[in-house]
Write a structure and sequence with these properties.
- This protein is an alpha+beta fold.
- The protein has a domain of 73 residues.
- Helix content is 28%, strand content 23%.
- It is built from two helices and four strands.
- The longest helix has 22 residues.
- The radius of gyration is 14 Å and the shape is globular.
């Protein structure tokens, strides 16, 4: 997901809760997870984002996780600062957080709050 073109610019206050931010659905066969928009806080300028597993992942570990929790369950969550001066750095920070939390939850068979 680090190489998705213009990805940092897609994390905006216009994100509609529950809609996919990245990657596009055409990439589902290559990337087994997606980042969806959650609640945006206008006061703090923070956009909550959710890492979710796509419906047909190739990975046996992800397949087991969605059997237990469903594709609508949160694998990981983070907050994207839409007011950040360096959107690229913020994007990479959020991705790192989502990936670390997602790996931990996958390993433990848990879901995010």
């Amino acid at each position: 997901m680090r190489n998705i073109k213009n990805a940092p610019g897609k994390f905006t206050e216009q994100g509609v809760e529950g809609t996919r931010i990245i990657p596009s659905m055409t990439k589902d066969h290559q990337i087994p997870v997606r980042v969806d928009a959650a609640k945006y806080d206008a006061m703090t300028k923070l956009l909550n984002v959710v890492l979710q597993v796509n419906s047909k992942p190739q990975s046996p570990g992800l397949q087991e996780w969605i059997k237990k929790h469903s594709t609508h369950a949160k694998l990981a969550t983070a907050k994207f600062d839409t007011a950040a001066e360096d959107k690229n750095a913020e994007y990479h920070r959020v991705l790192d957080e989502l990936i670390a939390q997602g790996k931990e939850n996958l390993k433990n068979g848990e879901k995010a709050d």
